[in-house]
Amino acid sequence: MSREELPTAQILVVDDETGHAEVMAEALKRMGHVCTVVHDLAGAEEELRHGGFDLVVTDLKMQGEEDGLRVLELARKHQPSAETVMVTAHGDVPTAKKAIRGGAYEFIEKPLDLDVFRTLCARAIETVFLKSSNQELRQRIDEKFGFEGIIGESRAIRELIQRLKMIAPSDIPVLITGESGTGKELVAQALHNHSKRKNGRFVPLNCAGLSESILEDELFGHVRGAYTGADKDRQGRFEYADKGTLFLDEVGDMPAAMQAKLLRVLESGEVVRLGDNGARHVNVRVVSATNHDLKKLSDEGDFRSDLYYRLAGVTLHLPPLRERPEDVPLLVRHYGAQYAKAMDKAAPEVADDAAMMLMQFNWPGNIRQLKSVVQNAVILLDGSKKIEPRHLPPEVREAGGPATAGDAPRTENRGVASMDQLEKNAVRNALAAAQGNREKAAKMLGIGERSLYRKLKEYGLK
Questions:
Q1: Do residues 237 and 206 lie in contact, with contact meaning Cβ atoms separated by under 8 Å?
Q2: The domain at 323-402+410-459 falls in which architecture?
């Protein structure tokens, strides 16, 4: 974003030297910005409390030695999205650096070089607008396509998001079920972010593959001398997550002995560190996840039923990606833009034939696998503006490839007899998700409206 492209910014200029304040304001006005000028701390406080600013430019020393630092504090309190530039004399550079540590964007020394001053302010304003743009974009994506990064317009995802919003504010334990790679930790994080505990910690722990002794130490901590090598006290995850959320991933793989110890903590709200006698009270919301059928395991005696019911206050199920193919184009565009930005590339479109292949693939690794496929495709773009079949791995191309004469129907990835049937199902699903809106359905499929119209005629769909 060049200086000429910057939107008009609202700027507050604070300086007790009237002439100096007017020079700074005039330099900024010539860039097309709107400036409000005040000459003391009281005037700055009044404007910051009741106005709306993108940038604050303040002298460090005015009537008071550190009035500028007070302006910075007020700006951070009342205008949290604004940036602050500190103007200082040469001898006050150490104090100006203190202001940087306190949240100021930058400082500039007197006498001002107006070109340097304008460039510095332009960079600060650009930072403000970019942060605002990214926040608004994320909000629009969440409002239109999902929630807290959970992307999708399928019925299953809409229902999941609706339930998630309802239960997030409570302290009820939540069990998240679903295949590996479906995004269970993302859902757990969303629950935390929209709970009353959002200012506390979100502490994850993967229980898979950990022995009983390691898992016990991770969860409950230890005191010095509890075992060889324990040279100092250590908090466990429960204590570390106090007043926050503890996320136990793959809880179904927890050893049986640890299940009893976990149950005791959930019932009492107290943990005992290894090697200690005293209990410590903790206030933690537990969210757990598993790719197993935990109810079936508990019925068969392979998981404690009393612990299962403690963990499963509410159960949220994440459907596998193959059951919501209409969400695939949204996910591909979302991650495609994300990876392209990280590689300083333009966000790619998806060619019609590539979009169909992506929708028809079975995705045994779910979203985790899709992200990997999209990342590789973006790496291989080599100047192309579209993700095309040649950018996709062989297994994805084969899932949507045309059958040749005499070939048996391929079912290993698609579970259906022909590509035509798969395509017809994909179009039908997208139309259902879009409630009959052709423009919306075409976007979900990653194809043009004309292409969709031809396919509707071809397959006899309304």
A1: no
A2: Orthogonal Bundle (1.10)
Q: What residues does each domain of the chain span?
A: 3-138, 148-319, 323-402+410-459
Both structure tokens of 458:
């071809």
Cβ contacts of 136-144, under 8 Å, gap ≥ 24: 141/334
Cβ count within 10 A of residue 31: 17
| Residues 241/284, Cβ–Cβ less than 8 Å | yes
What integer pLDDT is reported at residue 356 of this predicted model?
A: 86
Q: Are 427 and 413 in contact (CB under 8 A)?
A: no
Task: List phi, psi (to 5°) of 83.
Answer: -105, 155
pLDDT at site 318: 95
Pairwise CA distance, residues 194 & 167, whole Å: 9
What is the CATH superfamily name and number for domain 148-319?
P-loop containing nucleotide triphosphate hydrolases (3.40.50.300)
Query: Greater confidence, 17 or 446?
Result: 17
Q: Indicate whether this model's pTM tops 0.85.
A: no
Q: What one-letter code names the amino acid at 103?
A: G
Nearest to 84 by CA among 66, 102, 67: 102
